[in-house]
Amino acid sequence: MKIYVTRKIPEPGVKLMRDKGYQLDFWDSDEAIPHNELVKNMKKKYDGLYCMLTDNIDKAVLEAAGSQLKAVCTMSVGYEHLNLEEIKKRNIVAANCSTVSSDCVSEFALGLILIMARRLIEGYEAVKKKEWGPWKPMWLLGFELIGKTIGIVGLGRIGFGIAERVNAFKISKLLYFDVRRCSYDKDVNAEFVTFDRLLADCDVICISCNLTNETKDMFNKAAFAKMKRTACLINVGRGGVVNQDDLSKALNDDVIKCAALDVTEPDPLPSDHPLHSTKNLIITPHIASSTWEARNAMSEVAANNMIAILSGKDPAGKL
Ligand SMILES: O=C(O)C(=O)CO
């Protein structure tokens, strides 16, 4: 079996596929493969395509690959980059890594909440800029999580992980909004509420949902207007869930207090993008799942998906 791997990936995933005797050809770089190169390379006829969330697996790629291609496995949770309709039309099986990065991303979300609540970046910058004078009772005051109402949009694996962790901070209430009520919400004391109630009641809102037609631009001018002026917004889901122009205006006009985004639209956000000069906003470069543990595990899950499909079995992450 021949597999095309669109990036340098962690060794555990490589080993699993090599141990199966597969021939692996790589785009041997840490940078994303240009789309035209991917199309060109797929003409060499592969049984499997092992891709990343940066690779647009569209009709052109699938047509170049032809009928030899049986598996498309993405080393990511998100699969917006896979044209599932075109993939399924060709009887190709696609799979993602739905499980392994949830702890990692939820830990990161907690980090963002604490950084924003305690104004850590401002404190760090003040020290660097030599602005640290004698102790002041009213300087860089943040807020505590104890007694607060926390909201989660999307109580999937990541949202659940955030809920488990945030409960340790003796919060007063945990609210969530999702497309439907989740059967396991009581396991984390989470109350299913309308989107409007979540917006109105929460001190911190964490976005951990996918980007779909329903979630696109969900956080827009109207939503920000319903939030508390002291509210903090965290996004570890997908950039498109937040209307960034509206967010920028809401922060600059003090409609809400602060926000931290690990995902943006586009991703990466160009260095001259106006969002970078927004007040009380921290942007991190899509690193919520960047740990050795998560990336090694993701490489293995995607490899196991590939092995299952090419052995005629259903992969764990079948889409
Ligand atoms: O796996 C994904 O979908 C990611 O966004 C990586 O953090």
From TrEMBL:
Residues 110-288 form the D-isomer specific 2-hydroxyacid dehydrogenase NAD-binding domain. SUPFAM superfamilies: Formate/glycerate dehydrogenase catalytic domain-like, NAD(P)-binding Rossmann-fold domains. Pfam families: 2-Hacid_dh (PF00389), 2-Hacid_dh_C (PF02826). Residues 3-317 form the D-isomer specific 2-hydroxyacid dehydrogenase catalytic domain. Keywords: Oxidoreductase. PROSITE patterns: D_2_HYDROXYACID_DH_1, D_2_HYDROXYACID_DH_3. One of its GO terms (cellular component) is cytosol. PANTHER family: 2-HYDROXYACID DEHYDROGENASE-RELATED (PTHR10996), GLYOXYLATE REDUCTASE_HYDROXYPYRUVATE REDUCTASE (PTHR10996:SF277). This is Glyoxylate reductase/hydroxypyruvate reductase. It comes from Octopus sinensis (East Asian common octopus).
